[in-house]
């Protein structure tokens, strides 16, 4: 016998109240109940990153996140990164740099990169942060190197191998922010 739970959350700024089984993942709630189909179900084991979204500003793999566990949270999906019909600079960069091939992982890549850029901007460090000069680490890692982008995006797999273009797309947006 399953137990139903009322989940209240904001997705891309819009309030939702949904009754769902306590075992329902955020991914299934987004795709099947709320029709946010940009978030993809890849491996369904938290290994590929295709289902990455931001919950309260932090990246999560939505296939492993129970919807009931984020009751009251703010969720940002790939659909919410754009401003209406105007693409976010990161989305433009993926187009300009050809940061996708088949496109299946692209929504997770963009969602992850969007949250990663915010993490970097607030000074969060990665293991690659310590491979640069001491001044870069002390200053909050103001420059986002390609090696650091690769490290921070390691949880997102592209089966087509568009990694170089994905890194270029993220680097181009990171460069605009630091300039």
Automatic annotation (TrEMBL):
Enumerate the Gene3D superfamilies for this protein.
Answer: 3.10.20.30, [2Fe-2S]-binding domain
Which SUPFAM superfamilies does this chain map to?
2Fe-2S ferredoxin-like, CO dehydrogenase ISP C-domain like
Write the record's keywords in alphabetical order, separated by commas: 2Fe-2S, Iron, Iron-sulfur, Metal-binding, Oxidoreductase
The entry's protein name is: Oxidoreductase
- Known pathway: Alkaloid degradation; nicotine degradation
Query: What residues form the membrane-spanning segments?
Result: none
Q: Which GO terms describe its molecular function?
A: 2 iron, 2 sulfur cluster binding; metal ion binding; oxidoreductase activity, acting on the aldehyde or oxo group of donors
2Fe-2S ferredoxin-type domain boundaries: 5-81
Keyword Transcription (UniProt) = no
**Sorted alphabetically, which InterPro entries does this protein's record hold?**
2Fe-2S-bd, 2Fe-2S-bd_dom_sf, 2Fe-2S_ferredoxin-like_sf, 2Fe-2S_ferredoxin-type, 2Fe2S_fd_BS, Aldehyde_Oxdr_Iron-Sulfur, Beta-grasp_dom_sf
- Any one Pfam family here would be Fer2
Which species does this protein come from? Mycolicibacterium sediminis
């Amino acid at each position: 016998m399953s137990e139903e739970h009322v989940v209240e959350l904001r997705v891309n700024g819009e309030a939702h109240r949904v009754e769902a089984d306590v075992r329902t993942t955020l991914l299934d709630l987004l795709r099947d109940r709320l029709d946010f189909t940009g978030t993809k179900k890849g491996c369904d084991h938290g290994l590929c990153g295709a289902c990455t979204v931001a919950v309260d500003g932090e990246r999560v793999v939505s296939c492993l996140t129970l919807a009931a566990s984020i009751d009251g949270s703010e969720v940002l999906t790939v659909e919410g990164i754009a401003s209406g019909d105007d693409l976010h600079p990161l989305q433009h960069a993926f187009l300009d740099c050809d940061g996708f091939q088949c496109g299946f992982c692209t929504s997770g890549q963009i969602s992850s990169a969007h949250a990663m850029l915010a993490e970097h901007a607030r000074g969060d460090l990665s293991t690659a942060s310590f491979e640069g000069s001491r001044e870069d680490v002390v200053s909050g890692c103001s420059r986002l190197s390609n090696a650091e982008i690769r490290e921070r995006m390691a949880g997102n797999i592209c089966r087509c191998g568009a990694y170089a273009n994905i890194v270029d797309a993220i680097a181009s947006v990171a460069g605009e922010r630091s300039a």
